[in-house]
Design a protein that fits this description.
452 residues; alpha/beta; 8-stranded parallel beta sheet; 7-stranded mixed beta sheet; 14 helices; 31% helix
């Protein structure tokens, strides 16, 4: 079997950062070898010199919409996974909607699995969708459950016609089905009736700025109501619950209370809620439109406080791309709601954390071991440990990444992260012992990603 050495780096292990060399045999980490730093004349196919680099586990982004098959002009797994690899991500979980058709039945799941084969630069798993229309088909859901990483449902309109949200009564059935299949149920948690009423009030209100009206139409209280209701059901049915893209510290506090009471629940937030605020949206417009929307700066600071307290479990990009023309509509209400960010998830997060003097030891698990443990892939992913996949990222803290249009690897070259500078740089991304990205050579010619 092929042997690879990663030498002279500062390696993030379960004991913290250590000066060890990593021996990789085949696709897995074989062992650590403690030795003094040694000068290497040049890198070879079997030796990588990680001098001056942090060596961290390959990141896992559990929340992307790569829109393949069916809407490849929006993104596609080839360009999406390429951008992910450049940003240090080695595993993604692709959501069941925004591809066409959505993954709400067994046939669509099998078709998507077949279609994605050999197209991805990174490893991947697939979410399955629970909607108001498939929720009573227990046979269909049972078949799907075998091939998915977890379930995803919306408590408000998804924006995708063949992915209807689940009603409050429907959510009870979704909770029971997820518990029956022993799968996590992830929720987009905003209370649909409240959003509809707020939208009806603000959308046509005279004298109010349209962007301010959009922000007002999706208040924190809509998240709060949805989360409270879902937590009650999860406690009742014993469902493993995961809230995605929570935008408010108050709501995370509710989830933390439920954890302490014994509810099996975890929570994700996204880099855009930790970096940008509503003032950025008011200035930038649709390029920063998302749901839930960006919040006031005090909410951003509140999220960082929650993160430091250990109340946030995972970070996901919620990469939700579209054609640029879908962002340049006449009305903010008609613009697509989604942010292109998978390439900058970890660069932006680590950069901001370091500026805030938050230790990498606290931050790194949010995109590595925490995700692997929650979603049941910790026997392969999430840590640098002998016996696990050799998914590694080499990062330098003494080099910067400047985001310009030429550096964007998305199919549609735009992002709210454009023109930002991050005070660190991904030098190499390694997937199961193969270098899939090198900052000098670019992305590998081969696509080595497999379905987990």
């Amino acid at each position: 079997m092929k042997e690879l050495w990663v030498k002279n780096g500062l390696v993030f292990t379960e004991e913290g950062f250590r000066e060890v060399n990593i021996r990789v045999v085949g696709e897995q980490i074989d062992s650590f070898v403690i030795s003094e730093a040694e000068p290497l004349k040049e890198e070879t196919d079997t030796v990588i010199d990680a001098s001056g680099c942090l060596v961290v586990p390959g990141f896992i982004d559990a929340h992307v919409h790569f829109n393949d098959p069916g809407r490849t002009d929006w993104e596609g797994i080839e360009t999406g996974s390429r951008a992910a690899a450049i940003g240090g991500t080695t595993t993604i979980f692709d959501m069941p909607l925004n591809c066409a058709p959505s993954i709400t039945n067994f046939k669509n799941l099998l078709d998507k699995m077949d279609y994605l084969t050999t197209r991805s630069y990174v490893d991947y798993a697939l979410w399955g969708g629970i909607t108001e229309t498939n929720i009573t088909d227990r046979k269909e859901l049972s078949q799907m459950s075998v091939g998915i990483i977890a379930w995803k449902a919306f408590m408000s309109e998804s924006g995708i016609e063949d992915f209807p949200f689940v009603s409050p009564d429907g959510l009870k059935q979704a909770m029971q089905a997820a518990a029956e299949h022993k799968k996590i149920l992830a929720l987009h948690a905003e209370w649909n009736d409240e959003i509809n009423k707020s939208t009806a009030f603000y959308k046509h209100r005279a004298g109010i700025d349209e962007r301010k009206a959009f922000l007002a139409s999706r208040p924190v209280s809509a998240e709060e109501k949805a989360v409270n209701y879902a937590l009650e059901l999860a406690a009742k049915y014993g469902t493993a619950l995961h809230f995605v893209h929570i935008s408010s510290a108050k709501v995370i506090g509710l989830i933390e209370q439920a954890k302490k009471s014994g509810v099996d629940v975890t929570v994700e937030t996204c880099p855009h809620y930790l970096i940008f605020d509503e003032e950025d949206f008011l200035k930038g417009g649709a390029i920063l439109k998302c749901a839930p929307p960006l919040r006031p700066r005090e909410e951003v600071e509140g999220l960082w406080e929650c993160l430091q307290r250990g109340w946030i479990d995972t970070i996901g990009s919620d990469h939700s791309p579209c054609l640029y023309s879908m962002k340049t509509t006449d009305s903010i209400w008609e613009a697509w709601g989604g942010i292109q960010g998978v390439q900058f998830t970890w660069l932006s997060l680590l950069d901001e954390a370091l500026k805030r003097r938050i230790s990498l030891k606290q931050i790194l698990p949010l995109g590595t071991s925490n995700v692997a443990e929650r979603f049941g892939i910790a026997e392969r992913k999430g840590r640098i440990r002998p016996g696990l996949d050799a998914d590694l990222v080499l990062i330098r803290l003494d080099e910067s990444t400047i985001v310009d249009k030429q550096s964007l690897a998305f199919r549609n070259a735009y992002s709210p992260f454009e023109d930002k500078e991050f005070l660190l740089k991904v030098k190499k991304t390694i997937l199961r012992g193969k270098v899939i990205y090198d900052d000098q050579l670019g992305v590998s010619k081969g696509k080595f990603g497999v379905c987990l």
